[in-house]
């Protein structure tokens, strides 16, 4: 007697769609299969026939027929290693002469089909994916993830930005050092808004040593001289200083930005952030005093080994000290996968491809922000669109570090929706071609379970408190989707070869 399958046709269609390679890498895989690709920079117009995003000859499932998205537009959204995307060529922005974000992204991204249909996917995956993705493309409005959902976005926690600190009074002597005609002040969380006859400024208490603050100011001025404009400029005092020190406290001033905190659930804004971070890195490569601001470990493989060891210690301590806890029950379910991901990430970063990339990029590094969270990016509708603020953690490092930070946080926010990785890679590649080693390094940084590592460290030190458990359960709810994304990404990168 033939056993009846419990899987319905629509479940099969969803499973087939979920097992497809990441959307943003499909073209690269197709090129590799065809023996494709010239590694030289392509400055020609885009070819509509060279690399279809989704093959028209593929059989059409019911799941595909139910989609109501725009028709497939054939284009080349992601270049092979060593080439730039030819999407949006011809539009430049500022003295740097780079492809503008709107030209590069809107031409390629706004007209192509989403890799997953939200309404159908939500039937087969726990959680309200429609809430996570509705309005994401091209949306600059309220974060759709604020809607109730079963599986919430993962959050690493915000920095010390405006939403975290209690209001602090700035001494009047600080304002006097700038020689402003002060008309009004307003103490907000972490910043004082100062309206003057010369304009509106933000005055903040520094959280870094004055010498570091001065160097950050020099780097930003250097970037501005190269044509970079997507940041809030620091303001010098009447005497030309970068900061003011009063009562052992250091303050600095920025030009005030009228805008809103970035939305990591908007693919448009994630693309704008990617472009801004890549431009910042590119325009600061030639800064002459990098060694004075190179505070991150130059050897990412060594750093990853230390984190891997710390993760193992935390898991061993939990198993030893809390054997009958909910925390240890969670760990028993997820430990093997955490160990595998940490080991794979460590091994990948130690590979020759990653070592060569990191050695080359460390020598010619640009400035990385290293604190890529929504509150550090301001969407300015009437300005340069997306501006970067709060450079306290910035340092010269390979740009894959910032790229991985951005992709991980946006993917966690949107339940690992591949559109966000696609738009991130696209805009980094448009500023400077992504090499095979950079792809592999980024994938390794995404593979390591950073969020679980931090949570387990806290839980092992302070006990299985409810906040840690809630966050770990949320991480677990994302685990399957995360794994599918990472495994497919690794497969696609491997198909690109070592160019």
List the helices and strands and how they pair.
Elements: H1 9-18, H2 26-33, H3 62-65, E1 92-93, E2 98-99, H4 101-109, H5 118-124, H6 129-133, H7 172-176, E3 182-187, E4 192-196, E5 199-205, H8 210-225, E6 234-235, E7 244-246, E8 249-255, E9 260-261, H9 267-283, H10 300-321, H11 326-349, H12 352-363, E10 366-368, E11 377-380, E12 385-388, E13 395-397, H13 400-413, H14 418-431, H15 436-447, H16 450-462, H17 466-495
Report what the structure shows.
By secondary structure, the chain is of the alpha+beta class. Among the domains are: 89 residues, Phosphorylase Kinase, domain 1 (2-Layer Sandwich), CATH 3.30.200.20; 235 residues, Aminoglycoside phosphotransferase (APH), C-terminal lobe (Aminoglycoside 3'-phosphotransferase, Chain: A, domain 2). It has 17 helices and 13 strands. Strands 3, 4, 5, 6, 7 and 8 form a 6-stranded antiparallel β-sheet that branches. A hairpin with a 4-residue loop joins strand 11 and strand 12. Helix 13 packs across helix 15. The protein starts with 8 loop residues before the first helix and ends with a helix. About 28% of the residues have low confidence.
CATH superfamily of the domain at 261-495: Aminoglycoside phosphotransferase (APH), C-terminal lobe
Q: Which consecutive residue ranges, at least 5 long each, have pLDDT under 50?
A: 17-79, 85-152, 157-166
Question: What's the shape?
Answer: globular
- DSSP strand tally: 13
Class by helix and strand content? alpha+beta
Distance, first to last CA? 53 Å
Which whole number gives the mean pLDDT? 75
Beta-strand share of residues: 5-15%
Radius of gyration: 24 Å
Number of helices: 17
Helix content, binned percent: 40-55%
CATH architecture name of the domain at 261-495: Alpha-Beta Complex
Order of helices and strands: HHHEEHHHHEEEHEEEEHHHHEEEEHHHHH
Instruction: Give me the CATH fold name of the domain at 261-495.
Output: Aminoglycoside 3'-phosphotransferase, Chain: A, domain 2
Q: Tell me, what is the CATH class of the domain at 261-495?
A: Alpha Beta
The profile of the biggest β sheet is: 6 strands, antiparallel
């Amino acid at each position: 007697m033939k056993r009846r399958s419990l899987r319905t046709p629509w479940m099969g269609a969803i499973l087939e769609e979920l097992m497809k390679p990441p959307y943003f890498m499909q073209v690269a895989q197709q090129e590799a299969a065809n023996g494709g690709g010239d590694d030289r920079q392509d400055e020609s117009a885009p070819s509509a026939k060279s690399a279809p995003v989704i093959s028209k000859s593929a059989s059409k499932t019911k799941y595909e027929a139910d989609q109501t998205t725009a028709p497939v537009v054939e284009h080349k959204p992601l270049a092979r290693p060593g080439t730039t995307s030819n999407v949006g060529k011809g539009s430049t922005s500022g003295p740097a002469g780079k492809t503008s974000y709107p030209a590069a992204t809107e031409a390629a991204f706004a007209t192509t089909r989403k890799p997953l249909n939200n309404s159908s996917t939500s039937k087969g995956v726990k959680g309200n994916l429609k809430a996570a993705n509705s309005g994401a493309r091209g949306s600059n409005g309220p974060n759709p993830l604020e809607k109730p959902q079963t599986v919430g976005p993962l959050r690493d926690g915000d920095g010390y930005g405006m939403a975290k600190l209690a209001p602090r009074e700035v001494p009047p002597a600080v304002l006097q050092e700038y020689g402003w005609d002060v008309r009004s002040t307003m103490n907000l969380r972490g910043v004082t808004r100062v309206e003057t006859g010369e304009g509106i400024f933000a005055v903040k208490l520094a959280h870094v040593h004055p010498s570091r603050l001065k160097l950050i100011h020099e780097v930003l001025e250097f970037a501005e001289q190269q044509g970079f404009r997507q940041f809030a400029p620091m303001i010098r005092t009447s005497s030309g200083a970068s900061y003011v020190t009063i009562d052992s406290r250091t303050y600095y001033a920025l030009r005030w930005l009228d805008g809103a905190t970035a939305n990591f659930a908007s693919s448009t804004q994630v693309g704008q952030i990617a472009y801004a971070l890549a431009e910042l890195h590119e325009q600061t490569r030639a800064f002459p005093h990098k060694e004075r601001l190179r505070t991150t470990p130059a050897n990412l493989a060594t750093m990853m080994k230390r984190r891997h060891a710390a993760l193992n210690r935390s898991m061993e301590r939990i198993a030893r000290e809390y054997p009958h806890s909910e925390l240890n029950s969670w760990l028993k379910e997820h430990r093997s996968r955490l160990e595998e991901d940490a080991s794979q990430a460590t091994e990948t970063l130690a590979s020759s491809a990653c070592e060569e990339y990191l050695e080359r990029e460390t020598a010619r590094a640009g400035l990385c922000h290293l604190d890529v969270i929504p509150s550090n990016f301001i969407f300015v509708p009437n300005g340069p669109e997306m501006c970067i603020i709060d450079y306290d953690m910035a340092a010269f490092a390979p740009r894959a570090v910032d790229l991985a930070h951005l992709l991980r946080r946006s993917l966690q926010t949107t339940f690992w929706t591949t559109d966000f990785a696609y738009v991130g890679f696209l805009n980094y590649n448009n500023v400077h071609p992504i090499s095979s080693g950079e792809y592999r390094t980024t994938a390794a940084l995404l593979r390591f379970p950073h969020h679980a590592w931090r949570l387990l460290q806290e839980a092992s030190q302070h006990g299985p408190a409810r906040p840690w458990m809630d966050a770990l359960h949320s991480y677990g709810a994302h685990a399957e989707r995360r794994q599918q994304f990472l495994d497919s990404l690794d497969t696609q990168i491997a198909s690109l070869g070592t160019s």
